[in-house]
Amino acid sequence: MACRSFHQVSLFTGSLLHKLLAMFSLFTLSLFCLYILTGCCDSVLPGARSQEPDLNHQLRAEVRPQPSDEEPSSGSDTPAAGPDGAEPQQGSGAPEAAAGHSPPAREAANGTAKAGSRWWCALRRLPEALIIGVKKGGTRALLEFMRLHPAVRALGAEPHFFDRHYGKGLQWYRNLMPKALDGQIVMEKTPRYFVTAEAPGRIHAMSKDTKLIVVVRDPVTRAISDYTQIISKAPGIPDFETLTFKNRTTGRIDASWSPIWIGIYAQHLENWLQYFPLSQMHFVSGERLISDPSGELGKVQDFLGLQRMITDEHFFFNETKGFPCLKKPQGNGKPHCLGKTKGRIHPNIDPGVVEKLREFYRPFNRHFYQMTGQNFGWE
Hints:
elongated, 9 strands, single chain, alpha/beta, five-stranded parallel sheet
């Protein structure tokens, strides 16, 4: 009788231990899965975790109030500050954070050290693709559309690293980027890069394999759109017709005025081709991005080596704004449209001035078509 009782107690104890062990294993597995999904394994330089700034705080503190493709901080975009209206540039050499890197240190700054053994971790790393221009071409729309793709991780704010903050170093730049899993592409957009003389060399110093995307638009329409944005902030500046000419009597165009200078695409592209082959650059038509967004997005996805997952089902054309809006493929929920700064009504411009501008841009446009192998139809 005693032996039977002891045997029953042993069976009960063994069963209880098995259950406890199973529960502990399940709990441990759950914690492990949570650890992976939240990206808690982010890698930083040795000893740097206590100094790594919070992303949101850094975006507010370091990258705030910068003139962007959407909202400039000043409407006085005149030749006095240089043809691009930008701040004086620093030297084109690599910043201190990158200049002395040995290969292991460069891997650490790029967030890829020991990545092979931690492929499932969400890490901050330098971008593999950049939308470099052009202002008022449709860069914000392209970025928002590309963020629909599950294999794309994009920074929302314009960091202006290669034109304004280069001296802060690649580690500062990397810390701005969103965390990404292995196989995802990290990207950002700053339209000022395309017209910044130092930007191509600086980006090449970061990575010669960087893929570059340029959204271009009829330079006459782009200039008027640029001016429309400027007067929304500084309504007291002279009219478009006055600023277009150095001498209206002779009809001489002021090519140093930023809204006009930015549209000389061939001139800016020559600078980029000194560092990057044309095969690493993709040109998006700003006009077709509006009329056929899925078609243009398909080409961008191909260029980045991504599966085509953004299709017609993701877009709804807003007749009031004249821009496509995003929607869920299932048709549920309200479409998401770009901000109120998109689709501003342009001022009426003297048709004679518009024709003069078309004559001015025509040889530059044709040269640009030859350089890119694409005819954008801006005649």
